[in-house]
Amino acid sequence: MRIRRAEIKDTDKVIDLLSQVLEIHAAIRPDVFIPGTTKYSPAELAEIFADDTRPVYVAVDDMDEVQGYCFCICKKQPDSANMVQFDSLYIDDLCVDEKSRGQHIAEQLFEYVKGEAKKMGCYEITLNVWEGNEARFFYDKMGMKILKTQMEYIL
């Protein structure tokens, strides 16, 4: 397994993986997510893949086929004048193909992203995970801790 930045040639597989993630979220929150859709279009992916402030890393096999991805966003944190400013790497999305799960690809992606964040001078890595998403156990295992809790009241 090798990890590299996503390229245009990866678009179709990344769209497939985005669809897998969407279906997980739609099953958890059908009131929020629309089945059969994806978070990004191919045109949006082309822009994101070219943006160094939004690196996307892909785990590829020996045939250079994408097995998983990690979408990241470089951010200045926090967004407040009364708090210490620092750089943060936000994980916008992490997915491993359902056919490739159980091979520690997600761990490899996460460790790679940690290394990249350190090279960028980031203080932290953050992400959001929906309640009910089993990925929460993975993030706990990787040593992530709860930063804050966002709550909702559905009207």
Overview of the structural elements:
- With 155 residues, the protein is an alpha+beta fold.
- It has 4 helices and 5 strands.
- Strands 1-2-3-4-5 form a 5-stranded mixed beta sheet.
- Helix 3 links the parallel strand 4 (86-96) and strand 5 (124-127).
- It starts with a strand and ends in a 14-residue tail after the last helix.
> What is the assigned CATH homologous superfamily?
Gcn5-related N-acetyltransferase (GNAT)
* Domain module tally: 1
State the separation between the terminal residues, measured CA to CA: 46 Å
Share in β-strands: 15-25%
Low-confidence stretches: none
Average pLDDT reading: 96
Order of helices and strands: EHHEEEHEH
Quick overview:
Helices cover 32% and strands 23% of the residues.
List keywords for this structure.
155 residues, alpha+beta, Aminopeptidase, five-stranded mixed β-sheet, 4 helices, 32% helix
Chain-wise SSE layout:
Blueprint: E1 2-5, H1 11-28, H2 42-50, E2 56-60, E3 66-77, E4 86-96, H3 105-119, E5 124-127, H4 135-141
Parallel strand pairs: 4-5
Antiparallel strand pairs: 1-2, 2-3, 3-4
